[in-house]
Amino acid sequence: MIKTPVFDGHNDLLLALWRSNDLDGNDFIFGREKGHIDLPRCKKGGLKGGFFAIFVPATNVAPEAFWERHPDLVKNKKGAKEKMPSNNLLNTEQISQTYAYAATIEMINIARNIADQNPDKLEICTDYGTLRSCIDKEKIALLLHIEGAEAIGSDLSQLEILYNIGLRSIGPVWSRKNIFAEGVNFSFPSTPDQGDGLTDAGKELIRFCNRKKILIDLSHLNEKGFWDIAKISDKPLVATHSNVHSLCPSPRNLTQSQLAAIAETNGVVGLNFGIGFLHPEGKQDKNLSLDNMCKHLDALLEILGEDGVALGSDFDGIQISNHISDCSGLPKLIASMKKNGYDDTLIQKICFENWLNLLKKTIG
Given this model, what pLDDT does residue 84 score? Predict the structure, then answer.
């Protein structure tokens, strides 16, 4: 049986490989014992590519080998390492630009190492034509994305460098404040109306991204920042991995007015698979039915239409339903979509075509 192809709006594979000190990405190629994504499971589940995020966690979560490679940065980890448990990825303590940039470069280099060593299996794509060609050749199409712009200084010189080595998508903020914007916390129930809007540097970041054709991701951004970007950006509004606030009142999810604004620009929202962003009570219920995901898809479709809804799994960055388990379980979600009345044309758009068409309009 031919699998429905999937292009995914968000995963944290590069962070997982970095934290395990797998700088060549061999575990991705040959299979990982843990996590949600590797090449064998991509093939099994029909995952053809997606936005591969670079997220820099708090210093207390960075692998010890990183500090050995960067002895000049060791002084920057003192303090943060003592404040939170060593496995806590949700530490919202602000991080230094120098640490974030060094970690970002290492994660990009992991992606480049995988691509260089396995040119027949994976390719870093910087434009729409390359994405299509890569997928046609049965290679994983990797689009580099930054989740939180801490690696970039206010003069944006680092962003110019990152663009030149392949970056094509950026979320200005994760769920912590930086020099550009403010993110939302993980409280429940709550709204995304938390904190101030974009700083002057943040507004210039958006203008720069528009000029360079770098996609801007609104996921994690607070509401005031969202509306600032809506006023400034001349590109479709995009949230790569967010859900519907009226169905799950997490501040990470989008309100009706935000969804309507995205629809007005012919933008796209990718469904986040995180159970805490799907469950109506925000519970981490790993037995959550896939019908619940379809309820969020229904609500997104009602506002955004069939061309504005996609998938943004958050694989390797979030707790997901046992009914999917990992990327090899994507056909189970597709079966649930069919059970809930989605025809093959709509499924193809949600799972694959809508992201590709959006990228044609944004990164060119």
Answer: 40
